[in-house]
Structures are given as C-alpha cells and as structure tokens.
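re: ur question from earlier - yeah i can do the single chain one, its not a big deal. heres the input i used so u can compare w yours
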Amino acid sequence: MNNQTTIPTLESLAYLPYLDSEGNISEDIQKQIGVYSIFNQDKILQFVGYSRDIYLSLKQHLVRQPQNCYWLKIQTIQRPSRSVLEAIRQAWIAENGVTPPGNVQQETLWTKSIDAKPAMTESEKAQYNQSDELGKTKILKQVARRVEAEIKEQLRDRGVNMDVRFNPKLKEQGLLDLK
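and the output i got, formated as tokens:
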C-alpha cells in the first residue's frame, strides 16, 4: 500500500489468529509497518493501533491484555507515514461504529507499562511507607516480580510459548514492560 492507495475496509480483511498453533505470534510480521486491529474471543474489536514493528507491538498488547487478544486484522505499508497510518486507524474505528475500549477508557491498559503498585498488599504498603529509597525499590521489585509471575501464568494458560522478558530496570519503579 502506498500513500495514494485507498484504505481497505476492516470488513474486507480476513481474521488472523493472534497465536499460531505453537503459541507464537507470526514472525512474518516482524519489522512490518502497519495498522492492526485486535479482537477478543468473540471477534469484538478491542483496540486499533499502528506500529513500525507490528510484531513487537502485538507482543506488548498480549502481555498487557491476554484475555482480549484472540484475533487480528492487519494492513501493512511499505514506508512509514504517520498520516497514512493514522488515516487507516481512524477509518477502521469509524467503520466499527463504536470506539473500541482500548482506544478510549482502557487505553492505558493497552498502551502503557503495567503498574504493579496496585497489587501491593497492606503489609507491603506499610513497609513501603516506612522504608528509605533502597527499601522502597526492593519492595517495588518484589511486587513487580509477583505480578510478572501472574502474567506469565495467564500467558501459559492461553498457550503462549514465546519468550517473554520484562525490563529489569522498570521493575525498580514497580512497572512491567517487555524488554
């Protein structure tokens, strides 16, 4: 697709499984530029995004929202053009008739690092409030590791077999994001 090409309708694109039979995201889309739409198990649109590497973006979304990532529709383009990508994204959202939850009220859940701090227990909160900076960092890392283990268990339950590694530096802030 080039800058002059008409925008494909979301309806005209085939549904693709989010994960292949081995539990991986298709490597065919690595380093591909384009727009993607993510659907839940019932094929209800959850999020529309665009990326310079669709594969990496899909991996991030899967980690952040494993229960909502079952089907995809993708349109790749050859050269990066934010205006073309944004036009396709807006057209697909408009075609859907309703803005997907991941593009409005749940946007941070789809696009930002996972904040592990809300998972702190009462005793961890009390410890955190009484700690110095080093102590606070240790508690945040501990909470982040616990949330990471829960996420990895959810991914295993979904049949995901990809290597999922989180950025260790962010854990010190109580945040989780892929490395």
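The chain has a mean pLDDT of 94. not sure if urs matches, ping me
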